[in-house]
């Protein structure tokens, strides 16, 4: 990632460059409205140093420069389903630095050790194979008692986007998707920069990360993809899995009540005659 510090460029130009011009792209798509990007103050160097000292890790260089330029990122937009029905749909969010914390509930489960010092969880939770995009070779994620896992975002109750340090000394942590039900790991990005660009490329469409999960996209989200960016559903990425899952969440549009299709009960001819005589 190129340096994100604001020099002679205006603040607006900085955010336009950071978002790769996504706002202009969305404003040219029919029915998309209320495109908003919140401007935030940068973190102080002391804040970044304090975070690193607290967690005993170093932020990767691109992520550090990001937070020294803006303390998080919040970009969202709405979709007009009808003249009087406008709902927020798209969202790209990176938390404030202080909000990036260890995934304590899951790491305790992942690394639970029984009295005989053997891990009590399935091996797939501790180790996951993935393709290293820089080399094109098969690699794998190995977790141990020294690993550090930080939560960047939560996707409903289905998954967490995590920044994973296999060891605290690692200078290049990777971005993984942790499926909360199965505790399976799915590889997302080699770096923070790549994950940010993936978020922008997917227009901030809801749950886009689930394209790379074993559970897949909710059906209503896939409809939005087909409507606004069907090319994103093409299987041109070895990491992408295409399944559809139903989740217990109200989609951002009106749900049709099946009761409207119920017809009146038919009456027998004899009943009709009695009604006419009365």
TrEMBL record:
Knr4/Smi1-like domain segment(s): 42-198
Transmembrane intervals: none
InterPro entries: Knr4/Smi1-like_dom (IPR018958), Knr4/Smi1-like_sf (IPR037883), TPGS2 (IPR039231)
UniProt name for this protein: Knr4/Smi1-like domain-containing protein
